[in-house]
């Protein structure tokens, strides 16, 4: 599906590429209906605002995150799939590292954000395709081919069918290729309570949703400040915010909005993800957990080449 932006339809030779400003693209279809029913968070609206903060430091942090997690310095000659590209930051980082990139997202505003980054830094680059698509659409996925790296950080648990989505991305990884995913940690009762909070956010007027984000953010910062005081550290949060920016190039505020509002919402224990992919012929080569707390566990898997078994 192509987009008409500024009244012009500008497909390239791959047909599914979009161009233009995130602000000029309006969501529609099934996604719009889900948002209207309070069944889905408008991730793209949040990423559109995040792009205003994007700078070289954030881009460098995203590149470092990919290099450290994948154990590489460059991605030249590699095909990189960003399944659920969001802001487009990590598609951009992969392209800067030399990969041929294919980015897609279910949220039309997220597609537009990624397309905007492409236009800013790699205008009309045939090595970077941006498309609208769903990770639950197997016919669409089967048309994409295989990739040396499949990247889906914090995405598959927002599909409303997480285990189906986890299964669908597995065939996209080429033999010997890597898959880098992040999935919300299953905390039991707290995860259930967060599901209710997220549902409330998405069914509330915008001003109530914003108030909810502020209240939760204040509560978390107060708890963190008290913890720093106990450890004889300054209670001010600025150092922690700076470290968060360095980790993946993201924004503390936009991550908070994404966390409170991110819905649908599913979770898994690390061992469940490990067992799931081991049964599909993957070896776990890197794992980063959040020590049983809030947020995502990160996994890097390598697909076993059947010729090397």
Question: What's this model, at a glance?
Answer:
This protein is an alpha/beta fold and 309 residues long. Helices cover 44% and strands 17% of the residues.
Structure keywords:
single chain, alpha/beta, Rossmann fold, 7-stranded mixed sheet, two-stranded antiparallel ribbon
Write a structural description.
- With 309 residues, this protein is of the alpha/beta class.
- It has two domains: 4-186 and 265-308, Vaccinia Virus protein VP39 (Rossmann fold, 3-Layer(aba) Sandwich), CATH 3.40.50; 189-261, no CATH class.
- Helix content is 44%, strand content 17%.
- The chain is built from twelve helices and nine strands.
- The protein has helices at 29-36, 43-50, 56-70, 89-96, 108-121, 138-142, 162-169, 189-202, 206-230, 238-248, 252-261, 270-278; strands at residues 4-5, 8-9, 79-83, 100-105, 128-132, 147-153, 173-184, 282-288, 296-303.
- The strands form two sheets. It has a seven-stranded mixed sheet, with helices on both faces. Strands 1-2 form a two-stranded antiparallel ribbon.
- Helix 3 (56-70) crosses helix 4 and helix 3 (56-70) crosses helix 10 (238-248).
- The protein is globular.
- The protein starts with a strand and ends in a 6-residue tail after the last strand.
């Amino acid at each position: 599906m192509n987009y008409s932006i500024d009244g012009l339809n500008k497909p390239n030779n791959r047909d599914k590429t979009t161009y233009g400003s995130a602000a000029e693209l309006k969501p529609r279809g099934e996604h719009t209906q889900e948002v209207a029913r309070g069944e889905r968070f408008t991730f793209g609206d949040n990423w559109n605002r995040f792009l205003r903060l994007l700078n070289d430091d954030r881009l460098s942090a995203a590149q470092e995150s990919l290099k450290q997690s994948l154990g590489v310095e460059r991605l030249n000659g590699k095909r990189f799939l960003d399944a659920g590209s969001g802001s487009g930051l990590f598609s951009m980082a992969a392209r800067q590292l030399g990969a041929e990139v294919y980015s897609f997202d279910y949220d039309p505003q997220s597609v537009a954000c990624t397309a905007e980054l492409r236009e800013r830094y790699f205008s009309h680059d045939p090595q970077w395709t941006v498309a609208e698509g769903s990770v639950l659409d197997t016919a669409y996925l089967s048309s994409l081919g295989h990739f040396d790296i499949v990247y889906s950080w914090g995405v598959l648990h927002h599909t409303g069918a997480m285990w189906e989505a986890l299964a669908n991305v597995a065939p996209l990884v080429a033999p010997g290729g890597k898959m880098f995913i992040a999935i919300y940690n299953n905390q039991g009762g707290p995860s259930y309570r967060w599901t209710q909070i997220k549902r409330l956010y998405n069914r509330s007027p915008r001003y109530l949703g914003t108030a909810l984000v502020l209240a939760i953010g204040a509560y978390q910062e107060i708890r963190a400040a008290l913890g720093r005081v106990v450890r004889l550290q300054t209670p001010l949060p600025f150092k922690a915010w700076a470290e968060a920016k360095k980790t993946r190039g993201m924004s503390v505020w936009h991550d908070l909005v994404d966390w409170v509002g991110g819905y649908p919402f599913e979770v898994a224990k690390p061992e469940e993800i490990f067992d799931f992919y081991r049964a599909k012929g993957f070896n776990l080569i890197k794992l980063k957990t959040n020590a049983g707390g809030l947020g995502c566990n990160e996994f890097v898997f390598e697909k076993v080449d059947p010729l090397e078994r």
